Amino acid sequence: MVLFFVSPNVLAIDKVFPGNAKDVDIIIKSSISDDDDTICKSLVQTQGYACEEHKVTAKDGYILSVQRIPVGRSGKTASKPPVLLQHGLLVDAAAWLLNTPDESLGFILADNGFDVWLANTRGTKYSRGHTSLSSNDSAYWEWSWDELVQYDLSALVQYVQYKTGQKLHYVGHSLGTLIALAAFSEQGKLINMFKSAALLSPIAHLNQIPSQLTKEAAQLHIAEELYSLGYRQFPPGWDVLGPILEKICNEPGTNCSELMTALTGPNCCINSSRAGELLKHEPQPTATKNIIHLSQMIRTGTIAMYDYGSEDENKEHYGQSDPPAYNMKNIPKELPLFLGYGGQDMLADANDVKALLNDLKDHDNGELVEVYSEEYAHADFVLGVNASKVVYDPMISFFDIHSS
């Protein structure tokens, strides 16, 4: 039974979902927070933008924080469709707002007339709520990116469409691209709620990942070891993580002298003076099980649901001995896709992205746009001071073409 905690009138749902309101499978509750410790108050309103704080409760009980920037600096009401921005791993929505307004995608989209919505994945600072669990409970952290596909993305997309009455554009970075691609491959009812999707540093195939640090961590089953020791939240404390990093960094061929470079690649275009601001907000927690799932993808080269490690457990969860695959070739050919990727990216490796593009080779003519930057690494797509010119301007043109 679907519960609606909504004002003013539940009957307004029919304007968005004609016919039967039961098609909405989220618990809807919006709020504008008076708390001073919010993304709106700390990062958006300080730059002169209006901002709303919303809460969305997914079907499995996780309460997600969402920020809305409904107008640009001009104060003019958004004239273009909503855009949902989904961050990557170990960060939150702050990543879209840390540069100046002329350099940060959240602000740039608002100033270009879009209705901007910023998602925060479960477990991050502002999305720690749950209808029955505390984030101190180990059960709270029993999820991987499968649940982000099945519950978080579903709830967020339906909520934005419910609140705006419009189909939406989507922007994902890193893990935010993987959950979208997985959802698109399933071709459920969500697919009809998107106008288009922009995928920055797209993560799908991971078996050619060049980050030696990340690869070693996966091959050594570090996340599995942490999970077996009872660490359900990642990263654990430095007392636990420090010796692990030392162990990995002592492996032949692994250079950890520049940790961010070792993980993401040599980012060309990040303003070093913003590093302190970045560290105020990141890293954000995720589930250790989520790291295990990504490690499985690196080791196997497959894009599949979480592998429980035994035929019996997989059969219990999936009715088959192997976890079901997400088939990228199933993504609808008519869905407009914009892919931005970089030659220095050590997580979304260009060769892995080309494997994804090969999966999409039958896409309708003109509905798949690529932007490649040889100098860009993983974080440049979100924090690069010139990303507006390199990536965002062509992306906004792409959105404009598909906004009717």
In short:
It holds the Pfam family Abhydro_lipase. By secondary structure, the protein is α/β, with parallel strands linked by helices. It is 34% helix and 14% strand.
Topology:
Layout: H1 13-16, E1 27-29, H2 39-44, E2 52-57, E3 62-69, E4 82-86, H3 105-111, E5 115-119, E6 129-130, H4 145-164, E7 168-173, H5 175-186, E8 194-200, H6 212-219, H7 222-228, E9 233-234, H8 238-249, H9 259-264, H10 275-281, E10 286-287, H11 288-300, H12 311-318, E11 337-342, H13 350-359, E12 368-373, H14 380-383, H15 387-401
Parallel strand pairs: 4-5, 4-7, 7-8, 8-11, 11-12
Antiparallel strand pairs: 1-2, 2-3, 3-5, 3-6, 9-10
Helix pairs in contact: 4-5, 6-11, 7-11
Give, in order, the helices and strands. HEHEEEHEEHEHEHHEHHHEHHEHEHH
Main β-sheet description: 10 strands, mixed
List unreliable stretches of 5+ residues.
1-25
Helical coverage, percent range: 25-40%
- Count structural domains: 1
Distance separating the two termini: 34 Å
The structural class is alpha/beta
Radius of gyration: 20 Å
Tell me the total number of β-strands: 12
Overall CATH architecture: 3-Layer(aba) Sandwich
What is the overall shape?
Answer: globular
Name the average pLDDT: 90
- Output the CATH topology: Rossmann fold
Under CATH, the homologous superfamily reads Alpha/Beta hydrolase fold, catalytic domain
- CATH class reads Alpha Beta
By oligomeric state, this entry counts as: single chain
**Helical stretch tally:** 15
